[in-house]
Amino acid sequence: MPMFFSYRFLFFFIIVPLLISITLYRLDTFDPAHHPADSLISSTTSIPPLINDRFLTGAEFIGVGLLNNPEDIAYHEESGFIYTGCVDGWVKRVKVAESVNDSVVEDWVNTGGRPLGIAFGLHGEVIVADAYKGLLNISGDGKKTELLTEEADGVRFKLTDGVTVADNGVLYFTDASYKYSLHEFSFDILEGKPHGRLMSFDPNTKVTRVLLRDLYFANGVSMSPDQTHLVFCETPIRRCSKYYINGGRVELYIQGLPGYPDNIRYHGDGHYWIAMPSGVTTLWKLSMKYPFLRKITAMAAKYGYEPMFMENAGVLQVDLDGNPIAYYHDQALSHITTGVKIGNYLYCGSLLHSHIIRLDLMKYPALNKKL
């Protein structure tokens, strides 16, 4: 009797579920691909000499409860306003004070979509890369919202993401995926195929051009200070590259990042700031290396399992040549999407939190860990 019970238990509770799982796996049409070999490299050259690995120790929180997932941050120096896009469709303005308790949050314009990247046009316009709407121009102090472009080469944007503006007024932006929309973005990363594009829009000619195709979740983009090239991020392969505007040459900027890059912002002191929503964990490394693990994760996600476990988020400071300078992160931090340096402070947006995070870089600097 005990042996009969053991065989029956083995059959119904182990063998049958295993056979069902194998069948479901083979029938599922989700087909992840191998990532480029160089994207799996863990490079020590991307780790800077200066590190603050206790980001949350000195962090302050701005607009608690009033900013619903403020993804990107753009600072308008003349007015002193911070502009940020929230998951509820609002582009909000924040007047920041020395004390975070004195900061004022204003509901400015609701796009009716999901504003992600934010930049300023030549005449004070606010340019918004809206994940669902496309590229928007908000002018007249918020009174007019105009759709600039929503497709290129006959392919509609599925996930308009980052945007930057050149001194001649041309807008450069990314469509992270032409296949998956924002609420499906995890499937794009898990599939491991290049659905992203880098594009330009000329406000004078109204022409949208595709500059680069076949990018791996094209994310943040920033104009170089000399206006000769762009630096753009590809999230799942932990790489940032340069795109030279004259000639279209592509050159590696930095790879093997300690996390998965989101937005990249240039600061006027010769540095870029690269935000990373998650560090590289063992689970992430295995998933990126083995497509079958990503397929299993995607199958679980279809039944409500959250596939994108994130931890150890942070912001990496990098010089113009792609050399890492300082890294601000924390094991308990996640979903950091933007890092913007304003004065002595680093301001961070997020896909998870209901506030902007601020860190005083003078009080809580990155230090040489080798000392």
What does this structure look like?
Keywords: Glycoprotein, Membrane, Phosphoprotein, Signal, Transmembrane, Transmembrane helix, Vacuole. This is Strictosidine synthase conserved region. Pfam families: SSL_N (PF20067), Str_synth (PF03088). Belongs to the strictosidine synthase family. The structure is a single chain. This protein is mostly beta strands. It has helices at residues 2-27, 185-191, 282-289, 291-301; strands at 50-52, 60-62, 73-76, 81-85, 90-95, 104-110, 115-120, 126-130, 134-139, 144-149, 151-152, 155-156, 160-165, 171-175, 196-202, 207-215, 218-223, 229-234, 239-244, 250-255, 264-267, 271-276, 314-319, 324-329, 336-342, 345-350, 356-360, 367-368. The strands form seven sheets. The protein has a six-stranded mixed β-sheet with strand order 21-22-23-24-1-28, with no helix packed on it. Strands 2-27-26-25 form a four-stranded antiparallel β-sheet, with no helix packed on it. Strands 3-4-5-6 form a four-stranded antiparallel β-sheet, with no helix packed on it.
Keywords:
371 residues, mainly beta, six-stranded mixed beta sheet, four-stranded antiparallel beta sheet, 28 strands
Summarize the structure.
One of its GO terms (cellular component) is endomembrane system. With 371 residues, this protein is mainly β.
Coarse shape: globular
Helix content: 10-25%
- Helix-and-strand structural type: mainly beta
Give Rg in angstroms.
22 Å
Low-confidence stretches: 16-21
Q: What is the makeup of the main sheet?
A: 6 strands, mixed
What is the first-to-last residue Cα distance? 68 Å
> What is the residue-mean pLDDT, rounded to a whole number?
91
Count of DSSP E strands? Answer: 28
Strand order of the largest sheet: 21-22-23-24-1-28
